[in-house]
Amino acid sequence: MNAAARMKNVLQIKNIVAMLAASICAILLVGGIAWAFGANRRLGRVRELRHPGCLTRQPGRAFPRSPAGRPVNTGNPDRVIGNGTPTNCTSGAVVRAVAAGGVITFNCGQKPVTILMTATANVAKTERLVILDGGGLVTLNGGGKRRILFSDTCAGTWSTDDCVNQSYPQIVVQNITFETASTARTKPRPAWPKRRNAGMAE
């Protein structure tokens, strides 16, 4: 085979290699575009599912609510704060009612009322259930100085070996607004008691 023939064969081989490389690049490019398009559609569906509009009430559609999230019936309260006017709807009345526990409602009149809390309403640990229902008209204001409602299951005597796993108190707050509260601790935390199970490490 002369030099011209060998050169021709080399050129043909180079052309074949170039065509194969171009084909591979084209396949990779098309595959990449298809993958990106599919990923974008998948991300689009995720964004759609996470869009706030999917979580809000829409006209003509009713979203189910779990029984645990439904308002508690407070038609037969244990304690009522107020006597029909805002006069007796005071911070002291709220504090005393919450300390006593049970189902608590307000009777402060037909108009919205704001109660400035001069002390924190502490939930007694021995109370099994405390329900505070403002009827959609009551706002408790912490004045930016104190907590409005407080419960510390780790204070006092524990009913279990771990204070965060105690079954009481149970607290329900509904149809009421809390505003301008402060989480700053005004008193030092009392010393934690020893666990009932002496065999557990402290």
Describe the structure.
The chain has 202 residues and is an alpha/beta fold. It folds into two domains: 3-53; 72-179, no CATH class. The chain is built from two helices and seven strands, in the order H-E-H-E-E-E-E-E-E. The protein has helices at residues 3-50, 91-100, and strands spanning 79-81, 102-106, 113-116, 121-122, 129-141, 149-150, 170-179. The strands form two sheets. Strands 1, 2, 3, 5 and 7 form a five-stranded parallel sheet that branches. A two-stranded parallel ribbon has the order 4-6. Helix 2 (91-100) links the parallel strand 1 (79-81) and strand 2 (102-106). The termini are far apart. Mean pLDDT is 75; it is low at 39-57 and 196-202.
Query: Total number of helical segments?
Result: 2
Helix content: 25-40%
Mean pLDDT: 75
Q: Give a quick account of the main beta sheet: strands, pairing sense, barrel closure.
A: 5 strands, parallel
What is the beta-strand fraction?
15-25%
**Global structural class:** alpha/beta
| Rg over C-alpha atoms, rounded to the nearest angstrom | 34 Å
Number of strands: 7
Shape: elongated
Provide the fold topology.
Blueprint: H1 3-50, E1 79-81, H2 91-100, E2 102-106, E3 113-116, E4 121-122, E5 129-141, E6 149-150, E7 170-179
List the main descriptive attributes of the protein structure presented here.
single chain; 202 residues; alpha/beta; 2 domains; five-stranded parallel β-sheet; two-stranded parallel sheet; 2 helices; disordered C terminus
Summarize the structure.
By secondary structure, the protein is α/β, with parallel strands linked by helices.
